[in-house]
Input
Amino acid sequence: MAAAAIVLVCSHCTELPTEVGEHVIYHWDDSEARLCGGTVPTVDRFLEAVGGYYGWSPDDLGPGVEYFWDEELALSACSWLGASGCESRVLVRPHVFSKHPVDTHELAHATRGGHGRPALRYPAFINEAFASRWGSSVIEINVPFLTWPEFLSTAELRAALEVNDATKLDYGLAFTWWVALESTYGPAKMADFILELDGATTADDVERATRRVFGISLAESAALAESLPEASIDDPVCELDALPTYTWTGLPLVLERADADCDDGDIVNLHGDYASWMFALEFPDTLSPFYVSLSVPDGVDPISKAIFLVPCDGVLEFENKVPYYAAGVDDGGDSGTLTWPWRLRGRQVGRLAAEIEPDGAVVLPRVVFERVLDDADRPMSPE
Output
């Protein structure tokens, strides 16, 4: 059924404009959207980040990905899944069809670790666990996944591993299982696990892989997942090493990307007529409150101008049940300063977002971070 759908939707694929990146051949519907200059490079960097995390070089990424940002094609190719995006390996290289310009979940399916759709009965549970782990809230407009504090029993895990229909799975539980293994054993062991899973089609096959790589049974892997409280993991963008980085030095930190245009190489399509600019911030390791102010030039409509920020802790974060900050220019009222300070530490990654104007301009908000002073900052009065 998937193969027939792919042949059908690709009958006019050659009519779409194309941009060739290092690891992606990218097509889009230019009658519906304008492709920004940083979108294809971002797909390339994302694919490299996923592979690099597990120790694979760019040369190990395979034949690359054919990506179609076209809502009509996505609906046609993926309607049998009831999804807005899907991935197929029926053709020479992995193909991604999506209504989103950078669909990180589907791109993860297309990587070496994703194994693609389970045409050969590769367990959909693992396939979706891996792709959910690599879904980026910064690149897309999503809320980060959290692990589930209650997990499947061993019997339910075995049953889930026998399911070949991704629409019948609980992605949150699959994500939790993968994160439990990855946070316990690290990326190098997970790379071994990914390779050991080649050819796996049943729960027994998966258990053989867990025993060979980790020395544990499926029951023990389920117990690991069940022991995790609700937690978040780093956004995949934390693995990108080419983001512009701004460091707080004690003075107010000003974040500004002026005169941005969709054609610029650092402006990335977000969804529809929206685009974003990604960045990293470096704060001291001690958690501190910061006043955050957002503004736009006089005469510019503040609607849709926003910031989204997530921490890069490098470990599971158990304390923060809402592992991100988001705000629009309107949220600051007349002063532009948000009512509640943001508590920040260490490395943060995020995006500024705005609509793409008819002439291609992207008027991003200016954001200022200023640490909230405490008693230690105030001079002592003379006795």
Remarks:
- The radius of gyration is 22 Å.
- The mean pLDDT is 87.
- The chain has three domains: 1-117, 141-234, 243-377.
